[in-house]
Amino acid sequence: MYEPGEVRLIAQNVDDIMEIFLDDAKVAECRWAGTGCGAGWKGVLKDRHKVRFKLTNVPYTGFCMTQPCGKWSADMLVMVEDKKIWSNGVFGRENDAGVKYDVTLTCDFTKGLCIE
């Protein structure tokens, strides 16, 4: 059971670094360490807030049998109570360093919607 108005910001299956921001403040982060990681935040919110998911790739420097060696990925969700109000999954197979996905959403948690 969820608290009325409970919001959850979730990132799963992250490879390599995911940062989650709420109204420009970092509220969660995870770093890949051999298996996909997850990050999340939960709290009770009303009205409009900005939510940002930022995924960064770190080049793979180990031995690999196929080219390109590196990859990046994340599954992201914004939930209000038990309702999914936004989701996206991203994946790329390349080994370049840098930000691979960066989205800022405007979410109205009272109305239960997010827009990019």
Question: How does this structure look, described?
Answer:
The protein has 116 residues and is mainly β. The chain has strands at residues 6-15, 17-22, 25-31, 37-44, 48-57, 72-80, 83-92, 98-108, 113-115. The chain has a five-stranded antiparallel beta sheet, with no helix packed on it. Strands 4-1-6-7 form a four-stranded antiparallel beta sheet, with no helix packed on it. β6 (72-80) and β7 (83-92) form a beta hairpin. It is elongated. The two termini are 29 Å apart.
List the helices and strands and how they pair.
Elements: E1 6-15, E2 17-22, E3 25-31, E4 37-44, E5 48-57, E6 72-80, E7 83-92, E8 98-108, E9 113-115
Antiparallel strand pairs: 1-4, 1-6, 2-3, 2-5, 5-8, 6-7, 8-9
Instruction: Quote the distance from N terminus to C terminus.
Output: 29 Å
The major beta sheet can be summarized as: 5 strands, antiparallel
- Mean of all residue-level pLDDT scores: 93
Order of helices and strands: EEEEEEEEE
* Separate helix tally: 0
Please give the radius of gyration in angstroms: 15 Å
Q: Which class do the helix and strand fractions yield?
A: mainly beta
- Which band does the percent of strand residues land in? over 45%
Q: Globular, elongated, flat, extended or rod-shaped: what is the shape?
A: elongated
Low-confidence blocks of residues = none
* Proportion of residues in helical segments: under 10%
Q: State the total count of DSSP E strands.
A: 9
Q: Major sheet: order of its strands?
A: 3-2-5-8-9
